[in-house]
Amino acid sequence: MTPPHRLHFTASDRPEAEAARDRLIASYGQCGVEDAQVIVALGGDGFMLETLHDTLRLGKPIYGMNRGSVGFLMNDFAEDRLPERIAAAERAVIHPLAMTAIDAKRKQHHALAINEISLLRQTRQTAKLRIAIDGKVRMEELICDGVLVATPAGSTAYNLSAHGPIIPLTGQVLALTPISAFRPRRWRGALLDHSARVTIEVLEPEKRPVSAVADNFEVRDAIEVHAAEQRDVSLVMLFDAGRSLEERVLTEQFSN
After folding, report:
1. Which residues make beta-bridge pairs with 7?
2. Is 232 an annotated catalytic residue?
3. What DSSP state is assigned to residue 250?
4. Is residue 34 part of a domain?
5. Which domain does 65 fall in, by range?
6. β-bridge mates for residue 132, sequence order
């Protein structure tokens, strides 16, 4: 890749991120986001997800540098020779999940999730859920704090904290992971083919209300949620040579 000369810099609201953006603009200029070859995101993982969502329609590659607290999806911050670093970077192409959530008023809500779609109990009452895969009920009743469907890119995020599996980017599977499962006690979740269509029905929704969340988009009082990979949407992230997202996911599996 030829070193890009049209860069658009964007930053989270953290002071160190904003200061870094201003210095980089002074060094490399600021191209409009529509005309940029690469978008450079300065912040943490949350800001990377925000940037991916905000620029999704543009189809631009995003190169992140860590100016936040968590930087699994970000490269190390350095100001020198940035176009050359970007030119040598490795591409990671990911496909988001599409969520259709139906609320108690039968209104449909649509959103995309880069990391995961999660269902979470709203009150002290545990959630009761029925899970179907490709139209066939696989679990009549799961009593839990919630459940999530994670992409490979998101498998090291909330999914890992919920004791779900880490998935290689090329694995072409999704993780279905319970959150604090009460019944059945020993159920630890499932790995699904990436083409699977997941339907989760909320049982006793008046007594046990549940919210549905696609990354940072939340639907309260959900009664039914559908999740499926959106193969016609591709998101591109750039990672420094030797520090690809695939390498990071593999390394995470051997970390303490």
Report:
1. 38
2. no
3. H
4. yes
5. 7-94+234-252
6. 137, 199
- pTM for this model (two decimals): 0.86
Which candidate in 13, 22, 35, 45 is catalytic?
45
Q: Is residue 129 part of a domain?
A: yes
- Neighbouring residues of 200: CB distance < 8 A, sequence distance ≥ 6: 119, 129, 130, 131, 132, 147, 224, 225, 226, 227
In tens digits, the chain (256 residues) has pLDDT values of: 788 889 999 999 999 999 999 999 999 999 999 999 999 999 998 899 999 999 988 989 999 999 987 778 899 999 999 999 999 999 989 899 999 999 999 999 999 999 999 999 999 999 999 999 999 999 999 999 999 999 998 998 899 999 999 988 888 999 999 999 999 988 999 999 999 999 999 999 999 999 999 998 999 999 999 999 999 999 999 999 888 778 877 777 777 6
CA dist 171 to 108, 132, 153, 166, 250, Å? 31, 22, 11, 10, 12
Measured between alpha carbons, how far is 25 from 131 in angstroms, rounded to an integer?
49
